Structures are given as structure tokens and as C-alpha cells.
């Protein structure tokens, strides 16, 4: 089967949108996880935890803006369906992200009597955003069906996605902190790993049951054999993270990054499996990527903008992480502030 340029452009924008959303889930996922773990730390540790995500968390959300922007301008039909079906959870997520942003700024400069309140609101915003994103993912996978089985599936993902973010956040803290806080982060990661693993298994088993399309893609031969490396690699990454969190001497030797890297690998492989399950649909069983795409001339115009913007965002992200890498310390704004 040969593809023309008009056929390839929608696939290009689908890939860009997928990359943006994957980058958002991984990058904003760890800082949402840090926010959710905040209540389990001391006041001094909370300052270090917030400092560890301080230079990054706002920029991480740029990927969400890029992904939704591509959906709007490159796939307007899909944008109308998706945003209409997910209006309420999207609104809840945006309010939670706003709450996080306000709390982040106010907690740093608030007086001691109010600092605990802003810390709590920062954690609450992180949790609500994660829950909303889980519900949106479940609804998307079921084709926005509102039946009991589909609603329970969406609720299951909403309740379990925060455990994945918590492991990401704990893995981030293992790399960015030391001493007592690092040891706590190892314990948090070890505690959240099993719920995350069980959630992934549950979602993997339930997805084919709620979607015939997913079932057909995964359980036909010989595709089933070819797809086995994905769950096997996820299991290996999970074991590696579990092995490190179970052995403090391994973390002390400098291998704590394995927890974060292993969790990221699980997220990436899960995303690849999801992309395979859905292709060529952008709205499962309703719209293919070509049916939802804008006119070719419009896509060509957008292509120029994305070709400039995407490398800039990638370059800035890499530069930012290089500049601010290293152990985190508590945020300070100078004497008397």
C-alpha cells in the first residue's frame, strides 16, 4: 500500500500529538506524583520536594497545550467529539491545574499559619488532576460509551492512574534528593509499585473486554506473538524498579534512577500498546485519522508552524533539564520574604 503526501500528513500530526501527550504524561506525571506525596513528608521535606519540581512543572504542561492544540487545528472533527464528550472531566482537570499553580506560588510566600493550607491544596489539585486524567483515558478507550461496564472501566483507571504518577514522583525524588527524604521516597515507591502493577494488569485484561476493536488487534494471530515483547518488557522494568526499592544499598550506590527509568519505560510501552490498539482510529470505531483531518492545504500550513515549534520545545526542554539538574534544596526568596 502506497501513501501519498496527503495521506502522510495526518499521520505526521497524529504522531506529534501522541508524542506531546506521552511527554506530558511522563513529565507532568512525576510532578503530579510529587504533589500527591507531599502530605507524607515533614515541613522541611515538603520545601525540598516542591523545590525539586520548581523549575520544571510549569514547562511540563507545555506538552499538554501542544497536544490539545494539534488536536484542535489538525483534527477539528475529533476535537469536537472528544472535548464535547469529556467536557466535565476536562473542566475539572483544568481547575485542578489552576489550583496547583496558585498553591505553588502562595505556599512559598505564605506565612507559617497559612503554609499548611496551601500545601494541602497543592496536593489536592495534584490528586484531582490525576483522577480526571484517568477518567478521560478510560472514557476515550470505551469510545465515550456511558454504559455501566464502560463507566466502571473509566472509574477503575481514574482510581489507579494516580498510583503510577506516585511511583514516577517517588522515582524523581530518589534521583533529586538524599538522606532521610530519599529513603522515604524509596519506601513510597515500594508501597505504590504493587498497586500500579495490579492496575496495569487489570487495565490490560479489561480493555479487550470493553472494546471489540482492542480485542481484535491484540488476540489475532500472528500479531499476538509479535506483541508479547511489550508485556514482557513491562514485567522486566517492573521487576527492576522493585529490586532497587527493596535494596537500600543499591540506591545508596547510585542506582536509584532505575526506579524512575523503569516506570517511564512502562509508561512508554503502555502508550505504544495503546497506539497499536487504536490505529487507524483517532476516535475509536468512529473516526479514522484521515476522516478527522483538516484539508491538505491547511495541514501544509500547520506543518510549517509545527516544524519550527516542536524542535524549539524539545530543545528548550533538554536545555532546562540540563541547567537545573542536580540535588534539590529548599526554595528561598531572600531575607524577610
Structural notes for this entry:
By secondary structure, this protein is mainly α. It has one domain (8-323). The protein has 16 helices and two strands. A two-stranded antiparallel sheet has the order 1-2. A hairpin with a 3-residue loop joins strand 1 and strand 2. The longest helix is centred in the N-terminal third of the chain and has 33 residues, at 5-37. The model is unreliable at 333-337 (pLDDT under 50).
Short description:
The protein is built from 16 helices and 2 strands.
Number of strands: 2
Structural class: mainly alpha
| Succession of helices and strands | HHHHHHHHHHHHHHEEHH
Main β sheet profile:
2 strands, antiparallel
Helix content: over 70%
- The shape is globular
